[in-house]
Specification:
This protein has two helices and no strands. The chain starts with 46 loop residues before the first helix and ends with a helix.
Length: 82
């Protein structure tokens, strides 16, 4: 299966129109629409709702720079010689 990627605009009537290349096969296709997530007064999720969701899932333990450096050094050491 071949994937075709296009940038398009949905008009005020919520219509999307695409013109495919001439070598596109005819027949059934599956269409996937990716809509960007935005936070603002006109969106379904407000910034305040976003922060509430963050508060509901507290962060796990934070690591210091020294702990991260030590972990990475250990990982690199475990690779051995190429």
């Amino acid at each position: 299966m071949r994937a075709l990627k296009f940038n398009a605009t949905i008009d005020s009537r919520r219509r999307l129109q695409l013109e495919l290349p001439a070598d596109s096969p005819k027949g059934e296709v599956e269409v996937i629409v990716l809509v960007p997530e935005r936070f603002g007064p006109n969106d379904s999720t407000s910034l305040q709702d976003f922060f509430r969701q963050l508060d509901a899932h507290p962060l796990q333990r934070c690591y210091t720079r020294e702990e991260i450096d030590a972990y990475l050094a250990g990982e690199r050491a475990s690779w051995g010689e190429p």
